[in-house]
Amino acid sequence: MNTASPNSDPVLAHWDGRFGLPHFAAIKPEHFRAAFDKALAAHRAEIDAVAADKAAPGFDNTIAALERSGRDLDRVSNLFFVLAGADTGDEIEAVEREVSPLLARHANALYLNRRLYARIADLWRRRDALGLTAEQARVLDRYHTRFVRAGAALGQPAQDRLAAINERLASLGTQFGQNVLADERSYALVLEEGDLAGLPEFARANARAAAQERGHEGKCAVTLGRSAVESFLQFSSRRDLREKLFQAWIKRGENGGATDNRAIVAEIVALRAERAKLLGFASFADYRLDDLMAKTPANAKALLENVWARARAKAQVEHDALQALVAEEGSNFALAPWDWRYYAEKLRKARYDLDEAEIKPYLQLDRIIEAAFETAQRLFGLSFAPADVPLYHPDARAWEVKDATGRQVGLFIGDYFARASKHSGAWMTSLRDQEKLTGDTRPVILNICNFAKPAAGEPALLSFEDARTLFHEFGHALHGLLSDVTYPLLAGTAVPSDFVELPSQLYEHWLETPEILQKYARHASTGEPMPQALIERLLATRTFNQGFATVEYTACALVDLDIHSLADAKSLDVTDFERRDLERIAMPAEIVMRHRLPHFQHLFSGDGYAAGYYSYMWSEVLDADAFAAFKETGDVFDKATAKRLRDFVYSAGNLRDPAEAYKAFRGRLPTVEALLKKRGLDAVAGP
Ligand SMILES: [Zn+2]
Question: Contact 145/117 with Cβ under 8 angstroms?
Answer without folding.
Answer: no
